[in-house]
Amino acid sequence: MKNKYIDLIEQTFEFPQEEFKVVDNELDFHDISLMEVIKQYGTPLKIIYLPKISQQIQKAKRLFHVAMAKVDYRGDYHYCYCTKSSHFIYVFEEALKNDIHIETSSSFDIHIIEELLKMELIDKKKYIVCNGFKKQQYMEKVCDLVNNGFENVIPVLDNKNELSYYDKHLKKKVKLGIRIASEEEPMFEFYTSRLGIRYKDILPFYKENIKNNSKFRLKMLHFFINTGIKDNAYYWNELHKCVNVYCELKKVCPDLDSLNIGGGFPVKRSLGFEYDYEYITEEIIAQVKKICTENNTDEPDIFTEFGLFTMGESGAVLYSVLGQKQQNDRELWNMIDGSFMTTLPDIWAAKQRFILLAVNNWESEYERVNLGGLTCDSQDYYNAEAHSNAVFLPKIREGVIQYIGMFHTGAYQETLGGLGGLQHCLIPSPKMVIIDKDDEGNYNTKLFAKEQSCRSMLKILGF
């Protein structure tokens, strides 16, 4: 009878997979022995595998370049890193090895840009795409970049009033973008995105406010779908509308040469994940070319702003099971040494699912369990996976610690939940370890952040 945990995984999925395999009853992640990492650093523990960042960037570049070659697309492709997915220095150092550009969301992002320039990680020719509804401090920093000689800063206008600030404070000419207020998915609470300028207002706004102002050059039209890039009628309809607006605007604005389609590539949230990246990319490029050809318009350069896709699959969080509780006839609880609400807030706030796997004891029998976090909140639990309304893990055995991992957690978690700040029930931020690979294929680990101390927390609280 096949009732071992490894049997369950192999019967349910194609396994092993690219980043997961089992060696001697224990899980390896990108050929890294997770038990060795746990022995060195303990749990709870966050890890980031740096090479995956470059792999994702190169994958996207390859997808778009191949798609463009197939249809003889005459525009270029530019990969921008969406900083809000993770702002840490090690991310920039890795990502910028791949000749990419940067998309920002706040004034503090601009301070990071200035630091990257000091560190000689970027130069003043790098594209800096500035998105978001901008407070005055953000617009001030955008102007600082332009006035200090950054050649390719592109403030993307999110509302009409933003332009007047640049007109007053910019000392040099600037390239501009305009964000389209796309229609939301039919089931969404609102009809139209709160971000951007309405379709029907864009052309009149350009003619009245930008066309005859020598300080401005409208270079980019920006469009983003909140639900991501999906092969459905809603996405293709919005893409068609956006490209048609581009063609209409291009007729009166010869400087316009770039279409920014934002982010939206998904990441693997289940071992059964399926997404045809090649088909989607080729269809996007083919549709843009087709509409431009029909309108007798040159194809635009394509910009993307991948954040989740860049960072998501590089991360993992490792926990140990502290104990098990039988709460009634049906509910068996494994209590972990951390909190889902604080270390992976997407689970609580957005009902996000991640890949959950045992780290050890793969040859043990499995059982259905609920996972409980350390906070006193009733919502601090995990009881379902993307592919199943249940969680199965190896049976707990006396004297044997069970370790588990939540995988592909590299994007947004630290910026949503905070690192080293105040967490629910004063649960400390866990250690964070960076894993890299040298030219000879050897792995090395580095402790980026220690577990948060009581002293640092009390200082924040004013004690």
Beta strands, count: 21
Number of domains: 2
| CATH level-four homologous superfamily name of the largest domain | Alanine racemase
Q: What fold name goes in the CATH topology slot of the largest domain?
A: TIM Barrel
Beta-strand content bin: 15-25%
Shape annotation: globular
Termini gap = 59 Å
Rounded to the nearest angstrom, the radius of gyration is 24 Å
Structural class: alpha/beta
**What is the averaged pLDDT score?**
93
Write structural notes for this entry:
The chain is α/β, with parallel strands linked by helices and 463 residues long. It folds into two domains: 194 residues, Beta Barrel (Lyase, Ornithine Decarboxylase, Chain A, domain 1); 234 residues, TIM Barrel (Alpha-Beta Barrel), CATH 3.20.20. The strands form three sheets. Strands 4, 13, 14, 15, 16, 17, 18, 19, 20 and 21 form a ten-stranded mixed beta sheet that branches. The chain has an eight-stranded parallel β-barrel with strand order 5-6-7-8-9-10-11-12, surrounded by five helices. Helix 3 packs across helix 10 and helix 9 packs parallel to helix 10. The termini are far apart. 40% of the residues are buried.
Structural descriptors:
Lyase, Ornithine Decarboxylase, Chain A, domain 1; about 25% strand; alpha/beta
Topology of helices and strands:
Layout: H1 5-12, E1 20-23, E2 26-29, E3 32-33, H2 34-41, E4 45-49, H3 51-70, E5 77-82, H4 89-95, E6 101-104, H5 107-118, E7 128-130, H6 136-147, E8 153-157, H7 162-169, E9 174-179, H8 199-209, E10 216-222, H9 233-250, E11 258-260, H10 277-294, E12 301-306, H11 308-311, E13 315-326, E14 332-336, H12 340-343, H13 345-349, E15 355-358, E16 366-372, E17 381-382, E18 391-394, E19 403-407, H14 413-417, E20 431-437, E21 443-449, H15 454-460
Helix pairs in contact: 3-10, 5-6, 6-7, 8-9, 9-10
